[in-house]
């Protein structure tokens, strides 16, 4: 039986034989179904079927089996378009956030206050996934420390630590444990501070970041020093001095020399300490 098509392109009837073919071909190859029945046989353009998904004034008065085949096929265009829009919006926001985080990271060493300003401009609702939230938390913890904003609240750094302890680079792991140790330092929890610094040291030594290694060694040395563990503090201050000598940060070098001097005094090696006293001046 022929399909009757009126002047508006509306299918008015379809025979039982064609219904069976439509149902069969829908499951096997829906594109072939639409092209063969509508385009090749009845001059209804496949692009017009696409338009059916966009412009609802197309209405097909046909059997449920065939109508189901057409609707399922065209609904794919709805979902594809919706997903494309959502992906574009999500991807755009994500890209902006990533760029802002990278800009803050670039400013961190020389201008931590500017880095913090960039981070403050990021809407928390735009941090759409765990990776972005972790990176933001790590950078913000770093900015606060460099801007001398002390806190003993671990709610922020814990986001970074929970993420990077299981994934991420050795550098990111080292930073997360280091800034977590800063929180414990502000809580006057020496044991937890040392525990986190030891973990930070483990990962930092797998990187080529001399400055970070120097920071970790010097803070860990200071914690051992206040516990009168002068051998440990001396060894770590010496390591810190070596790392800081690779950088242009004179202040940190002088701090490490001062730590070596004090550790030697604590060990009763007064004559040796004189050299480092002079270097620290």
Structural description of this entry:
Helix content is 73%, strand content 2%. It contains twelve helices and two strands. The chain has helices at 16-40, 46-54, 64-107, 112-120, 130-146, 157-164, 170-186, 190-204, 210-226, 230-245, 250-266, 270-280; strands at 4-5, 11-13. By secondary structure, it is mainly alpha-helical.
Strand arrangement in the largest pleated sheet: 1-2
How confident is the prediction overall: mean pLDDT? Answer: 78
Instruction: Please outline the major beta sheet.
Output: 2 strands, antiparallel
Shape: elongated
Overall number of strands: 2
Poorly predicted spans? 1-31, 37-42, 46-63, 83-91
Individual helix count: 12
Radius of gyration: 34 Å
N-C termini distance: 103 Å
What proportion of the residues form beta strands (DSSP E)? under 5%
Q: Which structural class do the helices and strands define?
A: mainly alpha
Order of helices and strands: EEHHHHHHHHHHHH
* Helical content band: over 70%
Descriptive terms for the model:
73% helix, 281 residues, mainly alpha, 12 helices, two-stranded antiparallel ribbon
Give me a quick take on this structure.
73% of the residues lie in helices and 2% in strands. It has twelve helices and two strands.
């Amino acid at each position: 039986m022929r399909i009757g098509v009126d002047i508006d392109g509306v299918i008015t009837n379809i025979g039982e034989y064609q219904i069976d073919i439509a149902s069969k071909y829908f499951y096997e190859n829906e594109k072939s179904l639409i092209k063969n029945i509508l385009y090749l046989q009845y001059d209804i353009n496949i692009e017009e079927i696409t338009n059916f998904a966009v412009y609802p004034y197309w209405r097909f008065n046909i059997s449920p089996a065939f109508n189901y085949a057409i609707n399922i096929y065209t609904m794919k265009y709805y979902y594809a378009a919706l997903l494309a829009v959502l992906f574009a919006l999500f991807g755009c926001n994500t890209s902006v956030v990533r760029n802002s985080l990278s800009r803050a990271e670039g400013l961190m060493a020389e201008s931590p206050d500017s880095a913090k300003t960039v981070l403050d401009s990021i809407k928390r609702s735009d941090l759409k996934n765990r990776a972005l939230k972790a990176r933001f938390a790590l950078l913000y913890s770093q900015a606060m420390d460099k801007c001398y904003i002390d806190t003993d609240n671990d709610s922020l750094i814990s986001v970074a630590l929970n993420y990077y302890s299981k994934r991420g680079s050795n550098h990111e792991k080292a930073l997360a444990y280091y800034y977590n140790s800063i929180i414990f330092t502000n809580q006057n929890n020496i044991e937890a501070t040392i525990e986190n610094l030891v973990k930070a040291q483990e990962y930092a030594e797998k990187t080529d970041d001399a400055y970070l290694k120097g920071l970790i060694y010097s803070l860990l040395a200071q914690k051992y020093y206040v516990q009168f563990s002068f051998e440990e503090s001396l060894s770590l201050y010496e390591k810190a001095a070596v790392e800081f000598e690779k950088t242009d940060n004179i202040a940190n070098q002088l701090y490490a020399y001062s730590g070596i001097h004090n550790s030697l005094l604590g060990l009763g090696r007064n004559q040796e300490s004189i050299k480092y006293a002079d270097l620290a001046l």
